Amino acid sequence: MKAFSFERVSSAQAAAARAAEVQGAKFIAGGTNLVDLMKLGIEAPTHLIDVSGLGLDRIEETGDGGLRIGAMVSNTALSADARIRRDYPVLTRAIAAGASGQLRNKATTGGNLLQRTRCPYFYDTAQACNKRVPGSGCSALTEGAFSRQLGVIGTSDACIATHPSDMAVAMRVLDATVETVTPTGLTRRIPLEEFHLLPGDTPERETALMPGELITAVTLPAPVGGSQRYHKVRDRASYAFALVSVALIRQADGSGRVALGGVAPRPWRLAAADAELPNGAQAVMARLFEGARPTEETQFKITLAERTLAALLLEE
């Protein structure tokens, strides 16, 4: 790990201003992903700004019947909150499916959205990776590469990595909004569907955040009711990232919403696919995977996603 300086600040705006001011600065909260990346030499911040003491650890009710979740609320506290368990059970189930209990105790709501991909070529600094070193190439797309964990939709010729979060998939199906503060003190609200960027030719740009911009909260709209499910399929039941995960909200009339994890660079949901839910899992997946470009090793994910959704629908 390379040497770095460290400071605590007194407000979210001060944190954002310092991050914009100091070249190479990064925020640190729970540190469950960033510290690992620093140890591996993938991240090398010159300065860390601790945002854990800024009072961003509360869950508050909003005027329209929703909830505002502070960016520092731990995954454990969020999944255990009585209002989340009652009104947004898909979120509780998704968080419980992610990581270990120890990690959930430290991981934060804001940090969870900013997790870096678990693509093996991103973590192996001897391999080419456009996300880690822009313009270096993508070893995952070379002949014989191991791509079982990687994406099938929303990818590009520069990157086929997936976003690893379970929590973000549930928040996508709930139409969450990310709240931020900019270095000049302005508040921005970014719909989650616009927060994570597709790789295109610039896979190193993963979110819509501007330099120095700090996540302060995530807002959930008023509860939509319905039956809410989350199922994650992985190689090891005890601890692994998703091969495929499915978040489902289904209303009594058969309508609803579906979001997928483990298949794309961001939680994957399309309005046209939601509209197909009354017609069954095959119709939904036909829409969700329109334009898919699987490798030989990831072709199975399309069938797996369809069968996972079909199983969830049978639980109703």
Layout of helices and strands:
Elements: E1 5-8, H1 12-21, E2 25-28, H2 34-39, E3 47-50, E4 59-61, E5 67-70, H3 75-80, H4 82-87, H5 89-96, H6 101-106, H7 109-113, H8 120-123, H9 167-173, E6 177-181, E7 187-191, H10 192-195, E8 214-220, E9 227-233, E10 244-250, E11 256-261, H11 271-274, H12 281-288, H13 300-314
Parallel strand pairs: 1-3, 2-3
Antiparallel strand pairs: 4-5, 5-8, 6-7, 6-8, 9-10, 10-11
- The number of helical elements comes to 13
Structural class: alpha+beta
What is the global morphology?
globular
Measured by DSSP, the beta-strand proportion falls in: 15-25%
Helix content bin: 25-40%
Radius of gyration using CA atoms only: 19 Å
- Which spans of ≥5 residues are poorly predicted at pLDDT below 50? none
Largest sheet: 5 strands, antiparallel
Tell me the distance between the termini: 50 Å
Quick one: how many beta strands?
Answer: 11
Compressed to H and E, one letter per element, the order equals EHEHEEEHHHHHHHEEHEEEEHHH
Side by side, the strands of the main sheet go 4-5-8-6-7
Q: Estimate the mean pLDDT confidence.
A: 96
Please describe what this structure looks like.
Residues 1-225 form the FAD-binding PCMH-type domain. Keywords: FAD, Flavoprotein. It comes from Alloyangia sp. H15. It is a single chain. This protein is of the alpha+beta class. 28% of the residues lie in helices and 18% in strands. It is built from 13 helices and eleven strands. Strands 4-5-8-6-7 form a five-stranded antiparallel sheet. The protein has a three-stranded parallel sheet with strand order 1-3-2, covered by helices on one side. Helix 12 (281-288) packs antiparallel against helix 13. The longest helix is centred in the C-terminal third of the chain and has 15 residues, at 300-314. The radius of gyration is 19 Å and the shape is globular. The model has no long low-confidence stretch (mean pLDDT 96).
